């Protein structure tokens, strides 16, 4: 039995050595042993390439405003591991994490002796969340973010009230496939019979796959720009304002404080979801407006300092970089942009760097302490920008770039969310 938080966390992280093991049989085995906690919780399931975390946050904030006790299961964490299992935005306590690990470890040991083999870290954490939300700290509803793909993701044992696929992008192509159609097929695996599916996917080939799966499963289909749509979008100094036609009503001048046109799409998905959930829960227009405005998710085009001007953005794939570059051009056309970039080595970073080159005044490539992190030199070699440098010490890179900022220059720190989770507290402490 684990006595301390550190011991429990060490055991959980030790499961990383098992890598990714797609399939649901290990999860089903553990749920059977736990008397199916996943069936005791009303859920919403959210998948997609980008925008999952923000959409989870918008919906959680709306539901919380309505008085509900809302669990969220998200990944990766940004600053603290416990964030992955939260209730009303508050992470699970260290004491409860120890208690729940002591429930799951004996099952993991027993499962290891079967033909199914040991559960992975993600499977263990997913099982912990189900037990926590159902038995230890019961919630009114839980929002589950897909870890990878959808069809074989360990969260896909739930039958949710509704499902959302935020977007489709070319990420994890070594696992999910190298085309929008293949990746959409994996993401569409979360669509269940008769359960409404909402999506903001843009590529026609991806959208067709999702739509066909919805028809096959007799799942009501809600597509952004058809069943619900955004209009009158305006960027504000501290957020975005837009109006929204949902499938049931019209909302004028909704406001969010997260920056970026793409965030209006994530917010629109959350509002449409709330409208559909209002058949089962008391959710008013005021809950929606206030919930959207209060919603906050770190590291998503986040201004962490105005003097000097510093933005953090977890753009960790091509679509994320596209969005970042577009927002930098749209919002800050006259600013010179100094960038710091770090990425995982298993990402297709050449195209990402090429796009960053197009908007940067100078790029510093760096690395960080993570098993799959690319070296600063590897990233540097892929850039064609004249003003570029490699600095393996990310803390030194941040210090030097902040000190070098001149008037009308901004610093954008981007790339892996794992990197940003270390960079943000460092910047805040330095300030």
Compile the SSE list and pairings.
Layout: H1 5-14, H2 25-33, E1 43-47, H3 52-65, E2 70-73, E3 85-87, E4 90-91, H4 94-112, H5 121-136, E5 141-145, E6 162-165, H6 173-176, H7 180-187, E7 197-199, H8 204-216, E8 221-223, E9 229-236, E10 239-245, E11 250-256, H9 261-277, H10 285-294, E12 302-306, E13 309-313, H11 318-331, E14 336-342, H12 349-357, E15 362-367, H13 376-381, E16 388-393, H14 394-404, E17 409-415, H15 417-430
Parallel strand pairs: 1-5, 1-6, 2-5, 6-7, 7-8, 13-17, 14-15, 14-17, 15-16
Antiparallel strand pairs: 2-3, 3-4, 9-10, 10-11, 12-13
Polypeptide structure, described:
By secondary structure, the protein is an alpha/beta fold. It has two domains: 5-294, 3-Layer(aba) Sandwich (UDP-N-acetylmuramoyl-L-alanine:D-glutamate ligase), CATH 3.40.1190; 302-430, Mur ligase, C-terminal domain (Protein-Tyrosine Phosphatase, Chain A), CATH 3.90.190. It is 40% helix and 20% strand. It is built from 15 helices and 17 strands. The chain has helices at residues 5-14, 25-33, 52-65, 94-112, 121-136, 173-176, 180-187, 204-216, 261-277, 285-294, 318-331, 349-357, 376-381, 394-404, 417-430; strands at residues 43-47, 70-73, 85-87, 90-91, 141-145, 162-165, 197-199, 221-223, 229-236, 239-245, 250-256, 302-306, 309-313, 336-342, 362-367, 388-393, 409-415. It has an eight-stranded mixed sheet with strand order 4-3-2-5-1-6-7-8, sandwiched between helices. Strand 12 and strand 13 form a beta hairpin. Helix 3 (52-65) packs across helix 10. It starts with a helix and ends with a helix. The mean pLDDT is 95.
């Amino acid at each position: 039995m684990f006595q301390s938080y550190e011991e429990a966390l060490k055991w959980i992280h030790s499961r990383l050595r098992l890598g990714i093991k797609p399939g649901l049989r290990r999860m089903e085995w553990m749920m059977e042993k736990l008397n199916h906690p996943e069936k005791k919780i009303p859920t919403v399931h959210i998948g997609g390439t980008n925008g999952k975390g923000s959409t989870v946050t918008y919906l959680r904030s709306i539901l919380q405003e309505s008085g509900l006790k809302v669990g969220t299961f998200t990944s990766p964490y940004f600053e603290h591991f416990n964030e992955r299992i939260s209730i009303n935005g508050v992470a699970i306590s260290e004491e409860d994490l120890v208690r729940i690990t002591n429930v799951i470890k004996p099952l993991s040991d027993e499962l290891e002796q079967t033909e199914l083999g040991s559960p992975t870290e993600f499977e263990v954490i997913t099982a912990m969340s189900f037990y926590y939300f159902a038995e230890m700290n019961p919630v009114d509803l839980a929002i589950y973010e897909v870890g990878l793909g959808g069809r074989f993701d360990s969260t896909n044992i739930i039958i949710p009230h509704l499902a959302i696929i935020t977007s489709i992008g070319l990420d994890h192509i070594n696992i999910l496939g190298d085309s929008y159609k293949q990746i959409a097929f994996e993401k569409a695996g979360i669509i269940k019979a008769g359960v409404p599916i909402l999506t903001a996917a843009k590529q026609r080939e991806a959208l067709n796959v999702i739509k066909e799966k919805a028809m096959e499963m007799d799942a009501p289909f809600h597509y952004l720009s058809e069943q619900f749509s955004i209009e009158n979008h305006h960027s504000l100094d501290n957020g975005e304002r837009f109006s929204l036609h949902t499938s049931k009503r019209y909302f004028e001048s909704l406001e969010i404080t997260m920056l970026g046109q793409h965030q209006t799409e994530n917010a629109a998905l959350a509002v449409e979801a709330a409208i559909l959930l209002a058949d089962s829960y008391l959710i008013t227009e005021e809950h929606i407006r206030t919930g959207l405005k209060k919603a906050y998710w770190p590291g998503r085009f986040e201004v962490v300092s105005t003097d000097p001007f510093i933005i953090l953005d977890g753009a960790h794939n091509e679509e994320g970089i596209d969005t970042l570059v577009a927002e930098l051009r749209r919002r800050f056309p006259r600013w010179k942009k100094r960038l710091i970039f770090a990425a995982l080595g298993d990402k297709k970073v050449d195209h990402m760097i090429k796009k960053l080159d197009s908007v940067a005044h100078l790029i510093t490539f760096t690395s960080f302490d993570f098993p799959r992190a690319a070296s600063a030199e590897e990233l540097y070699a892929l850039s064609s920008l004249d003003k570029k440098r490699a600095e393996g010490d990310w803390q030194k890179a941040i210090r030097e770039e902040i000190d070098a900022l001149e008037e009308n220059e901004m610093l954008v720190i981007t790339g892996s969310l794992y990197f940003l989770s270390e960079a943000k507290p460092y910047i805040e402490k330095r300030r």
